[in-house]
Structure formats: structure tokens, C-alpha cells
Amino acid sequence: MRILRRLGLTLLVILGSGLGLSLARAALDGEAPPGRGWASAPRHSAGIAPDPERFGAQAIVQVYAAPTYGWRGIVATHPWLIYKRAGETAYTRYDVVGWRSPDVVQRNYALPDGLWFGAQPRLLATHRGAAAAAMIPQIEAAIASYPFPHEYRAWPGPNSNTFLAHIGREVPALRLDLPANAVGKDYRPLTQPVGLSSSGTGVQASLLGLLGINIGLEEGLEFNILGLDFGIDLNRPALRLPFIGRIGMSDSPAPEPDTP
């Protein structure tokens, strides 16, 4: 019993720390200011994606994530993917949007790097040139094979994070490390409780995204309890915590040369 109490206390400390830090971050970033509804929330470009006309000769693939709209942004993120082939001067964007049911997989629902209803996006993965060109057909095949195109549940999934996790498993070259607060990334059907982790670089065992474990080069060691993830990232040393995502070394991609 003493061990169980200590484990319970440790879990409460982890949850409290993650929630407190996430609340502080939201306050500092000014996300979801009071009195502003979703219809008037800014959705302009964040100026992160390379200019598709200037870089028209390059293939580009990028993945973004931003806090979800409203109070849920304190505890979870919304991710999406953009890409363009060499010779194209516009991006194609894909994400899952729950309120677009029954067809929740959306193409070009918003700007490639637009604010998500007022929340600043963060770059999770970026690839250019031959590597990006090689993975685009694989990405399109993964989108077509997504097993839940007409289903959406904010918790425990399937949702927008389940969608990006599926693409990450199908396209390991993407090296997609979804953060610990990407609620839904661990959702797996009962018929497939074990498989690749969402980065495609490790293994995962999960019971409907409610109880499980991830071990991978990108994820490190991560446990899931009731859809909340916590663990340690050894690739870029950091704690992986629910609500805030991570504390420690940043895992954002290094800036790329601003030349075509």
C-alpha cells in the first residue's frame, strides 16, 4: 500500500506540474484572450513556412502543431501537415477537423502555417529537396489509408493527433515526434494493440489510447495513463509531461538555410 501511495503521489505531482506550467505558458502567450470567439480569432499566417513561390523548385514537407481552441488548448494540441512538390508554388495542407464531420479529414481547411484560432503554431518536422520528394507519395498513401476518416472523438481518439500519428507510422522518414500533450496520438483499435510508435522509430503497445507505453528513438520512454503521457526523451534530453508537452531541451527542427 505504501508503494501505491507513493506512486499515486508522484503521478499527482507530475500532473499538477504539467498543468501549472501549461497554464503559465497560456497566460504568457496570451492564447484565447477573454471575450474573443472562434469566429473572430486570428488565423493569419505565422510566417514560418518557406515562401512556396520563392522555393518553387524545391519539394517541401512540414508538420505543425498548435494549442487547440479555447480551454482545451491548455491540455492538448492540434497538428497538421503541409507539402508541395518541386515545381509547385502552393502548399497542400491536411488535418482532421472534428466539426467537419462526417468527412473529418480536411484538405486545405486553413492557411499552411496559419494560427489555429489565435494560437501560434510550432514546427515539429521539416524536410526539403529529394528527401521530401520521396516521402510525398508515401504521405498521400498514408492519408488515403487512414482508418478513421469519418470518426472523431476528442478523447481518447481518434482525432487530429491520431491522424498525424498514423502518417508518422506509415512514413518513418518523416521522423515525427508528436509531443506528450498530443492527446489521441496513442489511440489504437483493439484489434491492433501493438505496432510502431507514431515516429515510426520505435514500438508502441496501447489499449485504445487509455493505457500503454512507447519506446522509440524519437519518443524515448513514454507511458500513457488515461490518455495522459509522461516519460523521458533521451534523444534531446527532456521530460515528457501531460498538458505542457515537454520540459528540457527543445526538439524543434534546426532552422534551415533561407536560400532556394
Architecture overview:
The chain is of the alpha+beta class. The chain has one domain. The protein contains 3 helices and 12 strands; from the N terminus they run H-E-E-E-E-E-H-H-E-E-E-E-E-E-E. The strands form 2 sheets. The protein has a 7-stranded antiparallel beta sheet with strand order 6-7-8-9-10-11-12. Strands 4-3-2-1-5 form a 5-stranded antiparallel beta sheet. Strand 2 and strand 3 form a beta hairpin. Helix 2 crosses helix 3. The protein is globular, with a radius of gyration of 18 Å. The protein starts with a helix and ends in a 12-residue tail after the last strand. The model has no long low-confidence stretch (mean pLDDT 88).
Attribute tags:
260 residues, alpha+beta, 7-stranded antiparallel β-sheet, 5-stranded antiparallel β-sheet, 3 helices, 12 strands, 21% helix
In short:
The chain has helices at 2-29, 129-144, 160-170, and strands at residues 60-67, 77-84, 92-96, 105-107, 122-128, 194-196, 202-207, 211-216, 220-225, 228-233, 238-241, 245-248.
Q: What secondary-structure arrangement, pairings included, does this model have?
A:
Layout: H1 2-29, E1 60-67, E2 77-84, E3 92-96, E4 105-107, E5 122-128, H2 129-144, H3 160-170, E6 194-196, E7 202-207, E8 211-216, E9 220-225, E10 228-233, E11 238-241, E12 245-248
Antiparallel strand pairs: 1-2, 1-5, 2-3, 3-4, 6-7, 7-8, 8-9, 9-10, 10-11, 11-12
Helix pairs in contact: 2-3
